Amino acid sequence: MVSRVIPVDAFDLVVFGATGDLACRKILPGLYRRYLGGQVTERCRIIGAARGPMTRAEWQAMIAQALSEHVAKDKLKADKVAGFLERLEFVAVDARGGQGWADLAAMMREGVVRAFYFSVAPDLFGPLAERLRAHNVADSGSRIVVEKPFGHDLATARELNATLAQHFDETQIYRIDHYLGKETVQNLMAVRFANILFEPLWNAQYVDHVQITVAETVGVAGRGAYYDRAGAMRDMIQNHMMQLLCLIAMEPPYHFDPDAVRDEKLKVIRALDPVRPEDVVRGQYEAGEGLSYSDEAGNPDSRTESFMAMKVHISNWRWKGTPFYLRTGKRLKARVSEIAVFFKQPPHTIFDDASGWQENLLVIRLQPDEGMNLKVMIKEPGPGGMRLVRVPLDMSFAEALGAEGSDMPDAYERLIMDVIRGNQTLFMRGDEVEAAWSWADPVIAAHEGRRPLAYAQGSSGPLASDRLMARDGRVWRELH
């Protein structure tokens, strides 16, 4: 199988926050890999913008170091690195003042796509948007890329949407969620809508329940101050996991078109039932092999959750009565992101001994080892009667696609190229963000100020999350 590299138009991409962690760890290494893939051509430029004074040569040296740390060694060809660094320019810009904007405007070229990546703190989104217009840096076809967090609640999200809308049309605003750039997430749409096999079964009649898990082994060290203001609900569930839920539950769009896809996701969010307090479990990791959450966050009396599990219902014809269980946490026993669709038991068994029966299960793995796994029942080999056993029909992208499967583009690579193409399918729309906050805010308010349950590092979270499932006669999938 040979992947196709689809060229993009020549562009000027300005990265605000060019010396920050995200730019050095993800954005620039991703653009380098697209340069290797032939999409970042000689006519493309990447302009770093940051407040601190720095020469072009100094920024090039910083990015060269970042590439050596975050790009596979076999991709670091000296001539290719040199060619990529030649694409880089730098300008010192004050996001809240007037310094550097005339210089940046003078660097913009006519006839190429202009894109501006806001890899900065959210309180700078508005000032940057305002100055891009005031200094004629952006034109009518320009695009801005906005990183999360997109608001802290519904009120701030609305305020931010309104601020950006003063300077840019909705078609120019790309709210990025890197989860939507993952190969497996996009394959979820292909599996559902390009195959007749699953879609007839994709409803409450045949699906018993769905589990969405995003588990991490790391803590909050290094970002404790931010995380303590956000918590698992704001940092993970309201955005990343909400997007996964939407893709699992949405109706088929009339076409694979940006607004058609986002219209169907919005319908899912608006159909979410309010979450009962007893259907939510919040946890916070204790000291163990590492520091406790409160120590890493620098807040001894922190009431912020590092773990959250909840049961969610969608009130529409397709999903009424089918629960969706969401679970995310830090310092857990394994790093895994997956969606597990549990199908119901056949209405009647013809076998005398069905004790070995287990539900059919479709597991979509987002990380690590992206792929899909369908578990079905077969006869256990050997004599002695009809004994049932569940076996996996496994598809690891790395194995199924060979070398190309293990060299898939990073989520940021794919999403940045979509920005250049002007394709908003995998980006959140303003009304979608506000609808997600409308649902999340009451959940947050119901538990504000309550102390989360303690859980051990390296565990699966608080025991109460297991009881949440046991109450319904179900169990979480093992973290491994």
UniProtKB/TrEMBL annotation:
Catalysis performed (reactions): D-glucose 6-phosphate + NADP(+) = 6-phospho-D-glucono-1,5-lactone + NADPH + H(+)
Protein name: Glucose-6-phosphate 1-dehydrogenase
GO cellular component terms given for this protein: cytosol
UniProt GO MF annotations: glucose-6-phosphate dehydrogenase activity; NADP binding
Domain Glucose-6-phosphate dehydrogenase C-terminal, first and last residues per copy: 189-477
Keywords: Carbohydrate metabolism, Glucose metabolism, NADP, Oxidoreductase
Annotated NCBIfam families: zwf
Residue intervals of the Glucose-6-phosphate dehydrogenase NAD-binding domain: 14-187
Name of the gene: zwf
Purpose: Catalyzes the oxidation of glucose 6-phosphate to 6-phosphogluconolactone.
